[in-house]
Amino acid sequence: MLILALAALLIQCTGSQNQREGKEKRRTITIAVAANVQFAMEELEKAFEQESGIGADVVISSSGKLSAQILQGAPYSLLISADMKYPEALAQAGKAAGTPRIYAYGSLVLWTLNNTIELQPTPDFLLADSVRKIAIANPRTAPYGEQAVNYFKYYGVYDAVQPKLAYGESIAQTNQYIMTGAVEAGITARSVVLSPEMKDKGKWIELPAESYQPIEQGVVVTSYGQENHPLESRQFFDFLFSERARRIFEKYGYSLPVR
User: Fold this and answer.
1) Which of 72, 132, 177, 213 is least crowded, fewest Cβ atoms below 10 Å from its Cβ?
2) Phi and psi of 49, rounded to 5°?
3) Taking the domains of the chain in order of start, what are their residue ranges?
4) Entry pTM
């Protein structure tokens, strides 16, 4: 009995050691991801790990904040931005490896959970007294917020609507304002309202494309990624342009660059 017990203990210890070694050997990279890509990214990282065996730890925030963290030395292997401005700025600052590339084009939508509001593509109805607060992402750090401001300016109502604006740190916080009813309506990304988590919640309308600048979303491998995880970082970069990734982006309402 003693021999059997010792054998069982040895097997258990060996199994635990193998599990630890397996975890240690699992290759993982950390990726900085703009908040509008949050829901699509959940599918992208799973698909990537299935194909490559490489794990991805994801940090979600506004593109501007993530870019600032990378400039300060944050250990992110890639920046998946909501525009091309921040990846290009990293390249100019010597904090990126290679040339930034557009992986998708985003779209703005106006979203509400308030049943009494009748959404319209033009913003004049938002000036009504019944609409007290409108959420947008911070235009200083979030490209979707910047384009929301351009939408209001295009129709000449920015000065009138500005006192009503509630600024989210990113699209993620903007969505929270809308979901909790802290605002009557908000401008967010089409990828959000098409996600399984948010689909069929409230109502939304796509904003006219001519009312804001095209949202060219870019990705770049960082200098940190090139120095510490060159193969894994490049594999994920290339994966974003694969047929499987393109199908995921399309599912979430993104338009795709021509190959």
Assistant:
1) 72
2) -65, -35
3) 2-105+216-251, 108-211
4) 0.87
